[in-house]
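Retry 2 of 3 after timeout on previous attempt. Resubmitting structure tokens to design endpoint.
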């Protein structure tokens, strides 16, 4: 009799066949006297869709909802049905008396295998191969320690509940809200999901905070001091300041002054006066960072290299499956088993034997006997299905650039964690001038500890302050007032969004606190990347550089869900509780029936609220404008601005841009508004500029910069106008239109020239006199209040023409660095740079 081994992927089946003795290949499986080894191709079985249950359900009607199958049936996935039929044939072979689940050791791997067995109807005994490494030795060891398949029944239950709950909420919620929002023409979907929607809500909440943000001016005061051993800088602080947890006080800082006159008074009072110095020196330590789990690895790779979460997972899977160089990557643990000390030493010995830059550091760990029991590293209580991602001690040649980068991160983190903490000396100096206090902080690295593993890239620059002679007074050389503005919160990157998902929306900086919140995170390390990609695919969010931005479509959906009190779909904390319950099920502490009953109740609630909300009343507010059609009163609803009699409508979202209430009022009153530079193309996903105007039929239409219109929205006759200058590209006339200063040859049916100067560049209006100066001299004056799309901060620059007639930026030269920066913090330096440039 033979044992059938089912892996998750063909490459893994091949590795197992090789490790067990190079089994001969027969088509899509391997076979010898003892084993038959084949594989799925990821998921090959799926749940019935509604129209599989009942053909009538192919039509998306509200009356048919909710769809609540009494039993979830399975079917082969069409594109991989041939592979399922092969596995079915092998499972039913009379000479097969046992089946081993060799799919990935986790929730999804268990689901893939259990669904295959369930659809074939087999009751043959099953075993579980549980691997955390794909080396031949690890595979052979795994076969020596096979687990009874039923030991993983709780994991299988959680996997099936995850699959079925996502089906119930996704199918019913998406059909209900699509039907209510877009009618019977199902060309556009309003998809919702148990994890997808609360993740979207996190992004939408941040985008709304940015949109609502109003910059406030504030001032800081810096004093330059001189003592016998050199110069240093101190920043004025309010010694009585106490930090508040209130959201409205988030901008308050000890070094910020909200009254310019007060800041100037401090400068006038202190300039040229002596200062009394007091200081405190104390040691400080910095422990090495924890080992990687998948989420922390994705976060780091996004921050360092710009890899998306999906790309990081792909590279890590390659390093695990193909290269055999790292342990199982789809893990949520950052610790190792307590009996892993010998394995760790062997791995370090392998690294020490290479010619890599890490070999010396690995050898030192072994020489100093730094591998010892340590709950921060070796902790069974913090090891779930898998342990942290570490090197296996095997090394493959021919890594591509991205594989090499990711492996370097993992290997350095592994070696560094055994090193001692870095040791610093922190100096806090207070200089009192005329009863005003100026603070200076210095930090000196005394012993790099683990930082030495990373070399110069991670060794933090010393911030030294000149030593004070006993009883010495400081001479105040100059006092400067810095004029600054508060900044909106940063948009999420994949790195920061992964942190928010991991902690159910709580942005925790502290590593240990993040670890404590993981049980209630959104999704799992293995699914978070796919959730982000699904939001991008549905156009609920878009990527700009490394930033993730909620689109108007995404904002509208979350606004609707919150308007109908659908907190179960919009609250990250509530959804995090569902994930926690799945974990309890894995541990045998919650029944499958109890969880699914709660999901069914939630599904019914979603459908009920979707069916019964009144879209004309939801969030309806009076709009201070009259319909241009018949003068009827206007109201704002959650998705448009409309007249009360329904004769006139302006949609809230036009080409991916939300039209704000005041903009709608201006459009109605002036019949034209713009230009705006943040519409989004549905095809290219890129932003573009346009003006909105009301046509003679009172329909909203877009006008682009190549269409010469005036301030009233009417088409211009350039032949009757006086040019403002000559085109730097072709020498023809440049004319002012509503949107741009453009070449007369750019508006022909077949444009001979494309030169233009936008009237709005990075949210700043370009005045006529500056456009003329740019055309005459090739450069404008220094212009302020440009807003960076990358940093969303204001900056100043000249507009300049290059030799090809392209309009670009030129920044004012920065002053040369001065020795007066000694003792000044990096944060302080960055603030000045941000206030004077992009």
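Retry 2 succeeded. Sequence:
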């Amino acid at each position: 009799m033979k044992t059938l081994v089912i892996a998750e992927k063909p490459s893994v089946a091949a590795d197992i066949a090789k490790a067990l003795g190079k089994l001969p290949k027969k088509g899509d499986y391997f076979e010898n006297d003892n084993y038959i080894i084949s594989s799925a191709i990821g998921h090959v079985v799926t749940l019935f869709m509604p129209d599989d249950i009942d053909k009538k359900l192919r039509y998306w009607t509200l009356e048919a909802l909710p769809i609540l199958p009494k039993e979830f049936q399975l079917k082969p996935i069409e594109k991989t049905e041939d592979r399922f039929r092969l596995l079915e044939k092998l499972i039913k072979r009379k000479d097969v008396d046992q089946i081993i689940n060799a799919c990935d050791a986790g929730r999804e791997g268990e689901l893939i295998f259990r669904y295959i067995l369930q659809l074939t109807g087999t009751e043959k005994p099953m075993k579980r191969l549980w691997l955390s490494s794909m080396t031949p030795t690890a595979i052979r060891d795994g076969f020596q320690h096979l687990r009874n398949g039923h030991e993983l029944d709780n994991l299988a239950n959680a996997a099936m509940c995850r699959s079925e709950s996502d089906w119930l909420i996704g199918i019913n919620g998406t059909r209900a809200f699509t039907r209510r929002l877009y009618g019977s023409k199902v060309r556009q979907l309003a998809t919702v999901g148990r994890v997808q929607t609360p993740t979207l809500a996190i992004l939408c909440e941040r985008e709304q905070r940015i949109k609502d943000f109003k910059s406030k001016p504030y001032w800081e005061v810096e004093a330059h001091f001189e003592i016998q051993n050199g110069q240093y800088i101190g920043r004025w602080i309010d010694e009585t300041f106490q930090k508040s947890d209130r959201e409205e006080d988030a901008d308050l800082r000890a070094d910020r002054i909200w009254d310019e006159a007060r800041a100037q008074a401090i400068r006038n009072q202190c300039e040229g006066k002596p200062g009394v110095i007091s200081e405190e020196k104390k040691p400080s330590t910095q422990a090495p960072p924890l080992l990687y789990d998948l989420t922390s690895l994705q976060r780091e790779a996004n921050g360092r290299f710009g890899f998306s979460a999906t790309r990081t997972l792909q590279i890590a899977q390659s390093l695990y499956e193909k290269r055999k160089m790292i342990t199982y990557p789809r893990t949520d643990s950052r610790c190792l088993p307590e009996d892993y000390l010998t394995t760790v030493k062997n791995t370090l010995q392998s690294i020490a034997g290479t010619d890599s830059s890490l070999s010396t550091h690995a050898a030192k760990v072994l020489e100093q006997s730094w591998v010892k029991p340590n709950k921060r590293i070796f902790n069974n209580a913090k090891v779930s299905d898998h342990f942290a991602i570490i090197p296996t001690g095997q090394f493959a040649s021919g890594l591509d650039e991205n594989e090499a980068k990711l492996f370097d991160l993992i290997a350095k983190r592994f070696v560094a964690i055994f090193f001692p903490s870095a040791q610093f000396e922190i100096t806090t100096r207070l200089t009192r001038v005329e009863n005003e206090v100026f603070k200076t902080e210095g930090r000196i690295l005394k012993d790099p500890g683990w930082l030495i593993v990373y070399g110069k890239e991670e060794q933090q620059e010393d911030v030294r302050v000149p030593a004070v002679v006993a009883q010495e007074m400081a001479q105040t050389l100059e006092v400067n007032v810095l004029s600054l503005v508060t900044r909106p919160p940063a948009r999420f990157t994949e790195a920061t969004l992964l942190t928010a998902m991991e902690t159910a929306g709580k942005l925790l900086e502290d590593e240990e606190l993040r670890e404590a919140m993981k049980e209630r995170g959104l999704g799992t390390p293995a699914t978070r990347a796919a959730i982000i990609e699904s939001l991008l695919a549905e156009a609920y969010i878009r990527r700009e550089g490394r930033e993730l931005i909620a689109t108007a479509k995404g904002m509208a959906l979350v606004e609707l869900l919150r308007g109908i009190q659908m907190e179960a779909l919009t609250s990250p904390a509530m959804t995090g509780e569902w994930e926690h319950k799945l974990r309890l099920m894995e541990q045998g502490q919650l029944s499958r029936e109890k969880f699914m009953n709660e999901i069914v109740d939630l599904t019914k609630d979603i459908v009920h609220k979707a069916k019964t909300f009144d879209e004309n009343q939801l969030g309806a507010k009076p709009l201070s404008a009259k319909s241009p059609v018949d003068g009827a009163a206007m109201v704002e609803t959650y998705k448009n601005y409309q007249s009360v009699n329904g004769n006139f409508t302006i949609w809230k979202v036009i080409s991916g841009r939300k039209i704000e209430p005041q903009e709608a009022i201006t459009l109605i009153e002036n019949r034209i508004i713009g230009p705006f530079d943040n519409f989004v193309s549905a095809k290219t996903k890129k932003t573009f500029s346009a003006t909105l105007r009301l046509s003679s039929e009172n329909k909203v239409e877009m006008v682009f910069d190549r269409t010469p219109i005036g301030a009233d929205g009417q088409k211009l006759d350039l032949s009757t106008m006086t040019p403002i200058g000559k085109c730097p590209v072709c020498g023809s006339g440049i004319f002012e239109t509503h949107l741009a200063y453009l070449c007369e040859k750019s508006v022909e049916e077949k444009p001979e020239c494309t030169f233009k100067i936008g009237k709005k560049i990075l949210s700043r209006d370009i005045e006529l006199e500056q456009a003329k100066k740019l055309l005459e001299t090739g450069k404008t004056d220094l212009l302020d209040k440009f807003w960076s799309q990358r940093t969303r901060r204001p900056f100043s620059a000249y507009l300049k023409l290059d030799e090809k007639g392209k309009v670009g930026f030129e920044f004012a030269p920065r002053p040369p660095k001065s020795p007066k920066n000694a003792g000044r913090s990096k944060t302080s330096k960055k603030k000045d740079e941000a206030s004077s440039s992009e």
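Attempt log closed. The chain has a mean pLDDT of 89.
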